[in-house]
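Journal club prep — side note

Before the paper discussion, L.F. wants everyone to see what a predicted structure for a comparable chain looks like in token form. Sequence:
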Amino acid sequence: MSVSNLNNLKLYESFMDSYTRKINEATFNVPFKGVRIGNAKRTRLAQINLKSKIITFSRYAIENVPERGRRYLVIHELAHVIEPSHNKKFWALVKRYEPDYKIIEKQLEQAFVKNVKQANYNEKKKIIKNDPGLFSVAEDLTLSFFKNESVASGGFVKAVQLKFEFTEFI
């Protein structure tokens, strides 16, 4: 990890720790020790370890998302300190501080998926740029797929994966 990426990670952690503490003071006021930032790209937007009381947020769930989505994510994790399971009691706790949580959760998940797709695209483009011979061939493929709006949801990722399978044979 580069120094600038490490510094960004520390900034995210500092911001989210402060942000989470402020929301906690205004809502549940439950004990937690701190915040970590992870790189989960699958289904876990955030999680709390109930033994260590540390909340881990995926960076893709907190950057470039609506503030209300970030707030919902914090409320969701803090509610787990009171009720570990996703049962009626848990959802009642979340709803107390975020009545529109179902709508916000969907918006947050959409932003998360968009952030992951963009990160995957950037990582793959960076790999290609590191080999000038591959970049000149693959750049045209990448840009042609990227300009085609109809494949931007779902199909775009497959197109990028195909590009990489193709470039490996050059």
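L.F.'s comment for the group: DSSP finds seven helices and three strands in the chain. Keep this in mind when we get to the figures.
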